[in-house]
Amino acid sequence: MNIPQELKYSKDHEWIKVEGNTATIGITDFAQDQLGDIVYVDISSQEGDDIAVGEAFGSVEAVKTVSDLFMPVSGKLIAVNEDLNGEPEKINSDPYGDGWIIKIEVTNPSELEDLLDAEGYQSIAG
């Protein structure tokens, strides 16, 4: 299982990469593996929306299940990975790269302190 050291993680299996005030969010290698083949990504939020920590911003649909996506920190949605519309399987093949899901402008940086580091995430992902 791939758990990059430079990322932060939520207990809901989202990863977040923060660069300045912008953060990229996706689901972890563990999560995509548990879901299986991802066939559809639905982002229920619109660009410009403010989304609170813990709020669902969309879902991923795999062959046998649908799983909600939860915000690891509060932020304003600034970009959605449109490539996933035609190729949702990018989440399976490259969850930390081309399989990113959204980008946000972080509105409450102190919430980052509540996230797990790679070692902490490893302990819950097993």
Automatic annotation (TrEMBL):
<feature type="modified residue" description="N6-lipoyllysine">
    <location>
        <position position="64"/>
    </location>
</feature>
<dbReference type="InterPro" id="IPR011053">
    <property type="entry name" value="Single_hybrid_motif"/>
</dbReference>
<dbReference type="InterPro" id="IPR000089">
    <property type="entry name" value="Biotin_lipoyl"/>
</dbReference>
<comment type="similarity">
    <text>Belongs to the GcvH family.</text>
</comment>
<dbReference type="InterPro" id="IPR002930">
    <property type="entry name" value="GCV_H"/>
</dbReference>
<keyword id="KW-0450">Lipoyl</keyword>
<feature type="domain" description="Lipoyl-binding">
    <location>
        <begin position="22"/>
        <end position="105"/>
    </location>
</feature>
<dbReference type="InterPro" id="IPR003016">
    <property type="entry name" value="2-oxoA_DH_lipoyl-BS"/>
</dbReference>
<dbReference type="InterPro" id="IPR033753">
    <property type="entry name" value="GCV_H/Fam206"/>
</dbReference>
<comment type="function">
    <text>The glycine cleavage system catalyzes the degradation of glycine. The H protein shuttles the methylamine group of glycine from the P protein to the T protein.</text>
</comment>
<comment type="subunit">
    <text>The glycine cleavage system is composed of four proteins: P, T, L and H.</text>
</comment>
<protein>
    <recommendedName>
        <fullName>Glycine cleavage system H protein</fullName>
    </recommendedName>
</protein>
<dbReference type="Pfam" id="PF01597">
    <property type="entry name" value="GCV_H"/>
</dbReference>
<dbReference type="InterPro" id="IPR017453">
    <property type="entry name" value="GCV_H_sub"/>
</dbReference>
